[in-house]
Design goal:
alpha+beta; two-stranded antiparallel ribbon; 2 helices
Length: 124
């Protein structure tokens, strides 16, 4: 599959306003001891800023797929995986308890730290 083939598929996809999909073919990448061509698929989207919701911020998420193993529907599935990744990321940023982020997608741990977390009544 060529970059033109992949871009032709991506041009047929749509999501929220302000979203764009792009692909870049990267030839000759060493993967698991073999030299293969890969495609880097990206999704760029404008979203509300979790810390200033009246403002927008631009996010780009990417994934890489081996080209020889890539069929047309694999491109669609890879794009869908990026959409899900963006939505989960945004949900984690906006999901709050008493104003505190419950899960920070930028941190490996649950936030806020237990000593900072709002308390809940027993049995909640």
């Amino acid at each position: 599959m060529t970059q033109s083939d992949i871009n032709a598929i991506l041009s047929r996809l749509s999501y929220k306003p302000g979203t764009s999909f792009s692909a870049k073919l990267v030839p000759g990448v060493r993967v698991d001891g073999a030299w293969v061509d890969v495609v880097n698929l990206s999704l760029t989207i404008q979203v509300p800023d979790a810390f200033s919701p009246k403002e927008k911020t631009e996010l780009t998420f990417s994934s890489t797929t081996r080209v020889p193993e890539c069929a047309p529907f694999d491109v669609v599935e890879a794009a869908w995986a990026l959409v899900k990744q963006v939505e989960i990321h945004e949900a984690m940023e906006f999901f709050r308890l008493d104003g505190f982020m419950v899960r920070d997608p930028h941190a490996p741990e649950v936030t806020p730290a237990p000593e900072e977390a709002p308390s809940l009544p027993a049995g909640s």
